Amino acid sequence: MKIFSHLKKTVLGVAAGLTVLTSGAAFFALHNGNETVQAATVSNVNNSEVSLQAASAIAIDATTGQVLYAKNADAVRPTASMSKLMTIYLVLDAIKDNKLKWDQKITPSEGAVKVSQNTKYSNVPLKADHEYTVRSLYRAMVIYSANGAAMALGDQISGTQQKFIDLMRSEAKKMGLATAEFYTSNGLDNGDVGSDKYQGASDSAMNKMSAADVALLSQRLLKDHPEVLKTTSITKAKFDNGDTQTNMENWNWMLKGLSKAYAALPVDGLKTGTSDAAGANFAATVNKDGHRLITVVMGARHNNDQDTARFEQTQKLMSYAYNNYTYTNIKSGQSFKKDSQLPVYHGKELNVATKTKGGTHIWLQKGVDAASLSGKVQGNKKLYKKGGLQAPLKKGQTVGTYQLTLKDQPLVYVNGATGFKTQAVTKANVKKANIFVIAWRAVKGLF
């Protein structure tokens, strides 16, 4: 077996005819005060509209997490070197926290060196008596999916592979990756890393995730460390091993200038992954006209090392998303004819009008009008007294949340959520009523 182990501001919907199956729920909060409503894991969305030759797949908006397509997206499958997305994330976290520095020198461990010399795997050969910079090892891991380099970086961060795997597991839990299983830092099977295997697990244990969780991990990586694209987009580079150099061509053949590049789809990341058990995997990202998507294809055909099936399926998935949806901005400050008022306790007025705070964007399926957006406001009970918001209130004060829906499209999120919330603010000041008005209302049974 020859293995080259590579690899929500919020969101509205997807077209009619979708199917959402339940599994575990995974909450993923988004930015700008917006958040999703927790629900079951996404499985199938519009999967009948694309004849995709892969075991599982998903396409999402990179910012909001809106699901445009999903096929068996909650199925847990081997990730192979797509596992390195987590290792990449933790390396960039360590750089950000000053626990690692790009020019810092690392002497690889015996285990990392041994794996790096194994020609069955994607690698740059490391030497036990040579120092390598964090930057050189990182580039080798990201561009060429070098397995030994990933181990060397993990060792430097945590001290041992065992501790680094524990860190990967802990971070996965924080991210809400309910299906994630990690045993190695690089995606090889547990027994393939020799004495560095994860204790208490079998040699055959392998890293696994669902396509939906790979998409969530990719989304988090791009959100927290957008600089990763500077490296994932490099097509070719050299690795300096002291007296020799290794030519590295990116395994992502959809990058500009490589064999499966498409001019209409400017792909600039992220990570491939291949093994006999996994088939061919690819977590990709593309930014077309300023609108970035993340796609994940798992279990595509892999007849040999030159098989391009995963890239062809990714191209088909990306083209479907861009050709069948319209990217639409939703402005801040919206209110609705119904359900936009909240009661006020001891206010000069008995109710206060509200509006949305913060805009967002959605992908509308062709034929769906953004005017079908509707919302219902829910007050923050912490601000309530005896059934109403306590006066006085200031204009623009955050007083609750809007539950937003789109009449002609169901809501589907990458974490399986089926609701959309954004902050609600007051449209005007509300002064406190005087004591005579308050007394009269008490007689009448009003606020």
From TrEMBL:
Stated EC number for the protein is 3.4.16.4
Q: Which residues form the Peptidase S11 D-alanyl-D-alanine carboxypeptidase A N-terminal domain?
A: 47-301
User: Where do the catalytic residues lie?
Assistant: S81 (acyl-ester intermediate), K84 (proton acceptor), S145
Pathway of action: Cell wall biogenesis; peptidoglycan biosynthesis
Q: Which InterPro entries match?
A: Beta-lactam/transpept-like (IPR012338), Peniciliin-bd_prot_C_sf (IPR015956), Peptidase_S11 (IPR018044), Peptidase_S11_C (IPR012907), Peptidase_S11_C_sf (IPR037167), Peptidase_S11_N (IPR001967)
Which residues, if any, are the signal sequence? 1-25
Q: Which reaction does it catalyse?
A: Preferential cleavage: (Ac)2-L-Lys-D-Ala-|-D-Ala. Also transpeptidation of peptidyl-alanyl moieties that are N-acyl substituents of D-alanine
Signal among the record's keywords?
A: yes
Q: What is this protein called?
A: serine-type D-Ala-D-Ala carboxypeptidase
Q: Tell me which species this is from.
A: Ligilactobacillus salitolerans
- Give the gene name: dacC
